[in-house]
Amino acid sequence: MRGDSRLSRMLHVLIHLGRRKEAATSEMIAKMLNTNPVVVRRTMAGLRERGYVQSEKGHGGGWKLTRSLDQISLLDVYEALERPELFCLVSASDHAGCLVEISVNEALEDARREAEALLLSRFATLKLSDIAGDFDRRMDMLGLSPGAHGFDT
User: Fold this and answer.
1) Per residue in 27-57, pLDDT tens?
2) Is residue 81 a contact partner of residue 6, using CB atoms and an 8 Å limit?
3) Domain with 67 in it: what CATH number?
4) pLDDT tens readout for residues 79-110
5) CA angle 50-71-8, nearest 5°?
6) Sorted alphabetically, which InterPro entries does this protein's record hold (predicted)?
7) I want to staple 91 with a disulfide (CB 3.0 to 4.6 A). Which of 55, 86, 99, 105 is the partner?
8) Into how many domains does the chain fold?
9) CA–CA separation, 151 vs 41, rounded Å?
10) Residues with Cβ < 8 Å from 4, sequence gap 6 or more?
């Protein structure tokens, strides 16, 4: 099963948008993510519907944040992306009547639910500004300016 990187990718994009004065086009974002602009627009749509970004068409248009990075949590972005699967564990269904399989599946599902609740609780406490601050510290340690990264240049 292939992992879902939408959350990671959109967090990346949103932090870059938070650093920009002007809008970033879908083409610019797609180039940074090595994907298609249509994929960018489709993925950003949920963020726009929740009011975290806005888009404008035409010359000078593109995507802009509508809130500051300290007003957006990881949970906000996760929910705007329609809650992608966090874990790829699936229950076996080879022997639906087997009491061992039923017990195993129930134990795995209980553990998955607990882990998901813990992770989502942590997502709620992390703001995009926390991640951006960590990025700034890393850039400072390397003696680089934040504008030397991504589509900010």
Assistant:
1) 999 999 999 999 999 999 999 999 999 999 8
2) yes
3) 1.10.10.10
4) 999 998 888 777 888 888 899 999 999 999 99
5) 70
6) Tscrpt_reg_Rrf2, WH-like_DNA-bd_sf, WH_DNA-bd_sf
7) 105
8) 1
9) 17
10) 84, 85
